[in-house]
Structure formats: C-alpha cells, structure tokens
C-alpha cells in the first residue's frame, strides 16, 4: 500500500528535499508530457503521491489555476506549500490515494513514483478505479515508475516495475497509450535510476 503513512512522514521529517533519491530541481519530463496532453491553463490537474515535488511550482508558473496536490505525508505537502504564495490556487490533500474520493473531475492525472509502490494486484486495481473515477472522458493519465531495468526498491520499499507493454496491459482497454519514454533520473548523489513514463488518454 505504498508503506505506512508514518514511514513517509519519517522520511520527509528527517530528510531535506535534496536528500531524497527522487528529488528533481525541475520535473522536466512531467512538464513535457503534460504539454503533450494539450492541457490549457483552465485544465484541472492532480499530482498524486506528489511529496514535496516542484511540479506544482512549475504548473503555477505556467498559469495553471486548478491544481490538486495529494500525498500521504502532511510534512511533504507542508514543504511544498511553504515555497509558494499563501493564496496559490492549490488544493492540498493529505490522503492515501487508495481511499481518496476526488471532489471534482480532473483533466490530467500525474503520478511520478507513487503507483510503483503498489505491489499488490488488488491495490493496483483500487488505485486504477480511483483514477478512472477522477478522470473526465478524454482525460490523460501520466504514470512514471521504475522501468524493468530500474531499481527494485525505493526508500527501502519494494516496487513494481513497468514498461509500456506492462503498463498498457495494467491500465486496460479504456486507456490508449499516447507516449512512452524511458528516462534516466540522476539522484542528487549521482546514481542513475531508469524510469518509464507512460502518457495515456482515457476513452
Ligand atoms: C518516491 S516519492 C515521489 C514524490 C514525487 N512524486 C516526486 O516525483 O518527487 C513517492 C511519494 O508517494 C507517496 N505515496 C506513496 N504511497 C502513497 C499512497 N498510497 N497514497 C498517497 N501517496 C503515496 C509518498 O508519501 C511519497 O511522497
């Protein structure tokens, strides 16, 4: 289930942003894929398992005004929130995505390195049901996970690794793969982690 909430709280309480392996100064791959969706500034975007990611900062800079940022860790969200103006148009949600009941429909669902913590098939199914309920018809899902030749653990937790074929199969026939790419993420200490990103369009 992506680990207990306290585990992630511990991570974010004990480490600075740039001490986490997944830190990115600028989440360029995510931004590029969001651009491919054609989303305009009135699109509703949710970043699931966002942690303290700077994606929200960049989306605000790009003019998006309907942004939801969700994570298990309150501390992670507080770190992101502290960087932004108090009146930034962001809904902050401390929740397990598996239990989340979105309060509005979304045009874009973004997840970098949260879905891959779901190693139980049943949890993956629950996640995908939540995602499907959240997304409008014709909406887009961007899911970044470790690739088959990427690490098999992150933050001490096992992960499920995907490539385009595995992820497409997992999302099922209601989602069409629009773009797939492999990305070498360089951790703050210089090691390389191979990610796969899939961009899907919902029927
Ligand atoms: C490896 S970090 C990636 C953070 C962020 N997406 C980024 O790219 O910087 C994984 C994040 O997923 C969150 N997470 C893991 N399982 C989750 C779940 N079931 N529901 C919500 N968030 C979850 C963790 O709290 C953590 O912040």
Automatic annotation (TrEMBL):
One of its GO terms (biological process) is methylation. GO terms for molecular function: methyltransferase activity. The keyword Transferase applies. InterPro entries: Methyltransf_25, SAM-dependent_MTases_sf. Keywords: Methyltransferase, Transferase. It holds the Pfam family Methyltransf_25. Coiled coil: none annotated. The keyword Methyltransferase applies. Residues 45-139 form the Methyltransferase domain. This is Methyltransferase domain-containing protein.
